[in-house]
Amino acid sequence: MKEITITSRFFVFDSIKELPHEIHNLMEQAIAARKNAYAPYSKFRVGVAILLDNGKIVLGSNQENAAFPSGLCAERVAIFHAGAIYPDAKILKMAITAASDTNKTTAPIPPCGACRQSIAEYEIKQETPIEIYFMGEIGLIYKSDSLKNLLPFMFDKKFL
Question: Are 96 and 74 in contact (CB under 8 A)?
C-alpha cells in the first residue's frame, strides 16, 4: 500500500472590499444574481457571475423545483448558459455567493459535487484553469486558481 498526499492551495480575502477591482465587480454581480434565485424549498440562494475571455459576464442563480432532482444549481445555470450562448469563449473567472433566508451565512460556500464536475468539464475542454472565488453572504472569500484544488481526482473524457 502507498500513501498519496494531495495539497490544495487557496487564497483568503477578509472581505469583499479586499478583492481586486475586477473581482469585486464580478462578486457584486453574483450577489445581485443571488437575489434572483428561485429557492422556495431550501431557502438557500446562490448567485454566480462568470467572466469570459470575450469580456462578457454571464450570471446564474439556483432554480428549484418541487420535483427536487429537476432543479439546477447556480453554477450550472451560468456555465451551461455561457456554453450555449458563447460556445467558443473560455471561462476565466467565476464568483459564487450563497445566503440562507433563515440564518446568516458567514462561511465561504464552495460549489457542490455536481457543479464541480460540470466546472471540470469546461476547464478540461478549454485547457485553461478557471479562477474560482466563493463566499457566503458576508465574510471571508476563498480563491482557487483552478477547479483542480476543489476536485483533485477529476472524472473526464479520457476515462470513457
Answer: yes
Distance CA 58, CA 50 (A): 5
Q: Alpha-carbon distance 18 to 57, whole Å? A: 21
Cβ-in-10-Å burial (0-12, 13-18, 19+) of 41 comes to exposed
- Grid cell at residue 41: 424549498
pTM for the whole structure: 0.95
pLDDT in tens, the chain (160 residues): 999 999 999 999 999 999 999 999 999 999 999 999 999 999 999 999 999 999 999 999 999 999 988 999 999 999 999 999 999 999 999 999 999 999 999 999 999 999 999 999 999 999 999 999 999 999 999 999 999 999 999 888 888 8
Query: Active-site residue numbers?
Result: 75
Q: Which helix (H) or strand (E) holds 44?
A: strand 44-52
